């Protein structure tokens, strides 16, 4: 038996309960992992509340973790017992001491990447790679807008975009978060509670607007993001921490200057083995070189998952938050 967080009904953080569960032996192509660290992400909240639907109830949430291989199934050759590995993969099930998962979902961790660091960056970092390299290839001289710039994805986006030569504008909720974002590559933090985002963006860009707006907030910011774009700019909506984004009429894209809009999900870009491993290697490379640092803002025990969710939803976290096993 092993401990895992189980959800029996959708709801608030109180539905996250620690239970003893049985973990099967790995089948062909599978491995059994013992987690040491688990990443907390807003997608976990979406599954907990029923915005996204699991395959069945009850279920264990979580898509990101790091740990050690403790058993391998038939046909597994890429990893072996004792290997340190990490993943950001479907289906959910990371909030657990141990789990069985497809070996193709795993990447071996290089010596320079620690388990806690890996658990705090796999899903967030590969999301950043997708946004900067594949959804919209950021070019030197581009101005970009990053909402929630002091969050887990935000801090990685700011650093990586600056490395690519972009001018980075980031929205934050406090002076402390502004300082954190600035220390992680954001040229121009904007305090969204005190400043008009669109007006500040136009000031910073000489009236032109940004090439791309990365919006993980949703309801509170999507229309503002649209108004911050330059001609032929792109709005990338990849989250909804403040609620469901409003509908955008197609004609608004034309009126704004032949704008583009997309709603990507990471697993459509790294759902297969080779694209996933290429994205992970690119992430490991920028972290190993010091281009991107992974800020672990808070740590909770696995049994404190509900407390961690409350902190995340109350915007009391910065950088990455991890659960320890």
Could you provide a short overview of the structure?
With 325 residues, this protein is an alpha/beta fold. It has helices spanning 42-49, 115-119, 122-135, 152-163, 175-183, 197-204, 222-227, 250-255, 273-288, 305-313; strands at residues 2-6, 17-21, 30-40, 64-72, 84-88, 98-102, 107-108, 143-146, 167-172, 188-191, 210-215, 229-237, 260-262, 296-301, 320-324. The protein is 29% helix and 26% strand.
Write a structural description.
The chain starts with a strand and ends with a strand. Strand 14, helix 10 (305-313) and strand 15 form a beta-alpha-beta unit. The chain contains ten helices and 15 strands. The strands form three sheets. Strands 3, 4, 5, 6, 7, 14 and 15 form a seven-stranded mixed beta sheet that branches. Strands 10-9-8-11-12-13 form a six-stranded parallel beta sheet, with helices on both faces. By secondary structure, it is α/β, with parallel strands linked by helices. It has helices at residues 42-49, 115-119, 122-135, 152-163, 175-183, 197-204, 222-227, 250-255, 273-288, 305-313; strands at residues 2-6, 17-21, 30-40, 64-72, 84-88, 98-102, 107-108, 143-146, 167-172, 188-191, 210-215, 229-237, 260-262, 296-301, 320-324. The protein folds into two domains: 2-120 and 294-324, Medium-chain alcohol dehydrogenases, catalytic domain (Quinone Oxidoreductase, Chain A, domain 1, Alpha-Beta Complex), CATH 3.90.180.10; 124-266, Rossmann fold (3-Layer(aba) Sandwich), CATH 3.40.50. Helix 3 packs across helix 4 (152-163) and helix 3 packs across helix 9 (273-288). Pfam families: ADH_N, ADH_zinc_N. Keywords: NADP, Oxidoreductase.
């Amino acid at each position: 038996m092993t401990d895992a967080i189980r959800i029996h009904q959708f709801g608030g953080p109180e539905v996250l309960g620690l239970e003893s569960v049985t973990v099967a032996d790995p089948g062909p192509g599978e491995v059994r992992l013992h987690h040491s660290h688990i990443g907390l992400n807003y997608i976990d909240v979406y599954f907990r509340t029923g915005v996204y639907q699991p395959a069945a109830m009850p279920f264990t949430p979580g898509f990101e973790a790091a740990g050690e291989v403790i058993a391998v199934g038939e046909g597994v050759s890429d990893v072996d017992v004792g290997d340190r590995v990490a993943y950001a993969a479907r289906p959910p099930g990371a909030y657990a001491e141990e789990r069985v998962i497809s070996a193709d979902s795993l990447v071996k961790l290089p010596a320079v990447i620690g388990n806690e660091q890996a658990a705090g960056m796999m899903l967030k970092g590969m999301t950043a790679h997708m946004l900067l390299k594949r959804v919209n290839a950021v070019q030197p001289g581009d101005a970009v807008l990053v909402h929630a710039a002091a969050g887990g994805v935000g801090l990685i986006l700011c650093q990586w975009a600056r490395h690519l030569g972009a001018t980075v504008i980031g929205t934050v909720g406090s002076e402390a978060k502004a300082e954190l974002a600035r220390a992680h590559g954001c040229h121009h933090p904007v305090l969204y509670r005190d400043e008009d985002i669109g007006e500040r963006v136009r000031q910073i860009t000489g009236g032109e607007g940004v090439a791309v707006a990365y919006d993980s907030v949703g309801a509170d910011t999507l229309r503002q993001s649209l108004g911050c774009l330059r001609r032929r700019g792109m709005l990338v909506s990849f989250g909804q921490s403040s609620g469901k984004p409003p509908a955008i009429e197609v004609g608004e894209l034309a009126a704004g200057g032949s704008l583009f809009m997309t709603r990507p999900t990471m697993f459509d870009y790294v759902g297969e083995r080779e694209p996933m491993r290429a994205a992970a290697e690119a992430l490991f490379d920028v972290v190993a070189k010091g281009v991107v640092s992974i800020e672990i803002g808070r740590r909770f025990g696995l049994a404190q998952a509900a407390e961690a969710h409350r902190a995340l939803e109350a915007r009391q976290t910065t950088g990455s938050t991890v659960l320890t096993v």
